[in-house]
Design goal:
Two copies of one chain form a homodimer.
Chain A: E1 4-6, E2 9-10, E3 13-15, H1 19-23, E4 26-34, E5 37-38, H2 41-55, H3 62-73, E6 78-87, E7 102-109, H4 116-121, E8 123-132, H5 147-153, E9 161-168, E10 173-176, E11 180-185, E12 188-192, H6 202-208, E13 213-216, H7 220-224, E14 228-233, E15 237-244, E16 247-248, H8 253-265, H9 273-276
Parallel strand pairs in A: 8-9, 8-15, 12-13
Antiparallel strand pairs in A: 1-2, 1-7, 4-5, 4-6, 6-7, 9-10, 11-12, 11-14, 14-15, 15-16
Chain lengths: 277, 277
């Protein structure tokens, strides 16, 4: 089994000068693999397409990506498929070269074990000091300029902290370092609008198709005063917040209901999945 | 002559998983090479060090970088040396791995010919539509998250446009896509403060050591109403603005004086340098 494909060829190297390495000039996906197949493939592909459109990078065909994905995923019971698309060519200088095409790198990685305790009782989160810059031109897509997330994630090393929540420079609550954010109050779900900054996650997209959610501006007080709060990602599923600063929660019925629905749809995200591999 | 060194070894490939490719998790320099030696080496090194400090990446020793730079530059009469430092290791996930070290890539490229007409009569510039996001944590350093510059530079393909000027999201004038910005009015130089966004260029740093310059907030009207305006970079030197929207300038005496001083210090940037190689 080949675990890395660069432009369809088994390889573990990139050319020096790749625009991803030079400028972060590309987009990526991390896709959960379950029983040899990618989970939420259509949602990941949609986001790749949006990212390519924003950057002016030609999107590979869906059938090409799927056939390459299948070829490296097919023997994996549970894994992570990473797809990186960068602007092709090796041109130095910011100007995108016309007709430079796209370079694609697909690689297979071990998946994090589902954390039964985190799923069941929830995680402790913290507010990060770093504030996300407001850049509507790059909002929503999963581009390769991720220094803000790296610096935010570097703020803590205490293993008891399960995620860091991020505010933008205006003080709005946006997301976690590698997850989206949902809050419930008075029986209604809300999640931050991601038209100024943040990444539109695929688990978030799946949830928006399952239940009614208001997409709106949220401030930290909306999070801290919520009845239920969770963060979610395509690799870790729905992780309820048990603690944030001075506030503590027990996992509520709305979150539990969504988790159960998720685990039925994607067994690889359920707390028992770790034991079956 | 080796023209690419990866961690000191002649190579033209990077490992898939390099943090530069994954997240733009690193910093870079483009250094003018003149008669086999890097120009403004100390200024470039200072900025690399500041960038490494911000990202928490260990800076290689100055002597190691210099010896590698010399080994690929020594036969070049006129060239560009690119240095890319990325966080070491191949860890997936935003969290920086403790002790991951640093990966260094040095490569040699052709230098742009000095443009005698641009030096002499000035260039036409435009205001870019893209607004720089305000992120003080990453301001000033030359990190690898450069999608804003790529998108801004993609706004025009007309070869008569020599640079695009950038405003930030608050509307302040900050820089050009690959150059810094200076304006003169009533005999005094001013240049934008770069503590919120923008890159502190080495040519800018050289100029700040030559003449008195006020570092301050500038708005587009300050640029358009200036007596003299130029953009500058370590690879193209000082390029006066001849035109910006409806405004036209002839090159003024303050700019000419700085240009002459620059060309004496760095002959490779003078309009005649192109003819000697």
């Amino acid at each position: 089994m080949n675990t890395i494909l660069v432009d369809g060829v088994a390889d573990d190297a990139l050319p020096v000068g790749d625009r991803g390495h030079a400028y972060g000039d590309g987009v990526f996906e991390t896709v959960l693999v379950q029983d040899g197949a990618p989970v939420w493939w259509a949602l990941h592909l949609e986001r790749l397409q949006r990212g390519c459109d924003v950057l002016g990078v030609p999107m590979p065909t869906a059938s090409l990506l799927r056939s390459e994905a299948d070829s490296i995923c097919r023997d994996a019971a549970r894994a992570v498929l990473k797809i990186v698309l960068t602007r092709g060519g090796l041109a130095r200088g910011y100007a995108p070269q016309a007709g430079a095409g796209v370079r694609r790198v697909l690689s297979l990685h071990g998946a994090p074990e589902p954390d039964a305790d985190a799923c069941d009782r929830g995680i402790e989160a913290r507010w990060c000091e770093l504030r996300l810059a407001r850049q509507p031109r790059l909002a929503g897509i999963k581009h390769l300029n991720r220094l803000e997330q790296v610096l935010a994630r570097a703020e803590w090393s205490d293993a008891r902290i399960g995620e860091g929540l991020l505010r933008d420079s205006a003080g709005d609550a946006i997301c976690a370092t590698a997850a989206n954010l949902f809050v419930a109050r008075d029986g209604r779900w809300r999640t931050p609008a991601l038209d100024i900054c943040g990444v539109e996650g695929t688990c978030r997209a799946w949830i928006l198709g399952q239940v009614e959610v208001e997409i709106c501006r949220l401030v930290p007080a909306d999070v801290e005063s919520a009845d239920e709060v969770f963060v979610c990602s395509s690799l870790r599923g729905i992780l309820p917040l048990a603690r944030l600063g001075g506030r503590e929660w027990t996992v509520g019925p709305m979150t539990r209901s969504l988790q159960r629905r998720l685990w039925r749809e994607v067994p690889a995200l359920s707390p028992s999945a770790g034991f079956s591999t």
